[in-house]
Amino acid sequence: MITKLNTLLIGAVGPLGAKAVPSGIDKRPVAGPVRLGRDGFEGDAQGDRKNHGGPLKAVHHYAYDHYDAWRQEIADAPVLRRPGAFGENLSTVGLDETQVALGDVFRLGDAVIEVSQGRQPCWRLNLRFGVADMAMRVQKTGRIGWYYRVIEAGIVRPHDCLDLIERRSPDWTLYRLWRLLYVDTLNRDELHAVIALPHLPERWRLLAERRLATQAVEDWTPRLSEKPAT
Predict the structure, then answer these.
(1) With contact defined as beta carbons under 8 Å apart, do 67 and 85 qualify?
(2) Tens digit of pLDDT for each residue in 50-62?
(3) What φ, ψ does residue 177 adopt, rounded to 5°?
(4) Full-model pTM
(5) What distance in Å separates the CA atoms of residue 109 and residue 35, rounded to the nearest whole number?
(6) How many alpha carbons lie under 13 Å from residue 108 in its C-beta half-sphere?
(7) How far is the C-alpha of 78 from the C-alpha of 85, rounded, in Å?
(8) What gap in Å lies between CA 211 and CA 81, rounded to an integer?
C-alpha cells in the first residue's frame, strides 16, 4: 500500500470563531521539506495541548476523498475549497478509515509513523465550519480522520509517499473502531477484543473498561458542543 501525499500542511495558533478561541486548526500547505519530530511537524502548533497534539496525536491525516460528500452536505463552507478544512497535516486520495488499521506503520519521507488512534471530533469543528453540529456530523458519518505517533523522526516533503511497512492489527480498521465507539457502543465481545490490543492508547483502554463495568456510554456532549468560555 503506497499512497502519495496530496498536500502537506502545518499551521500556527490563531483565533477561531467569534470568540477568538486559540486554535491551530487552520493548516496551510507547505512548499518545501519539513522536519517531523516526536511531537509533530516543525512550525505546527495546537491551541489546546491538553486535548490536541502530543506524541499520540503528532500527525493528523484526513482523506481528501471525503470532501465531495461534505461539499454536497455543506455547500456554502468556504473551508472545503482546499485541503486543510479539518485541521489535517496529511491530505491524500485513495486511503480512508475502511483501509487503515490501528497500529499500521508507514514510512513517510525519512520518517516512520504509526496509526495511534482515530480522531474524536470536538466542538472546534463547529466554529471552523460555522455549522452548529459539525462535530456530531463528523462523528455520525465515520469520516473522522486519524492520528499517528512518530516512531522515527525525519524530513517529510510535500509530495512524499506513505508506504505501509507493517500491520500490527489489520482486523482493527479505524472503521471498526469507529463503530465500536459510536454505533455498537456496548458490544461486550468487541470491547474485550479492543482492550486486548497491546498498542491501544491507555485512555481508550480505560474508556472500554468503564463501558464494560458500567454498561453505560460516556457523555459526549462536552466534547461535541461545549461552548468556549467568555
Answers:
(1) yes
(2) 666 688 999 999 9
(3) -65, -40
(4) 0.94
(5) 10
(6) 39
(7) 9
(8) 39
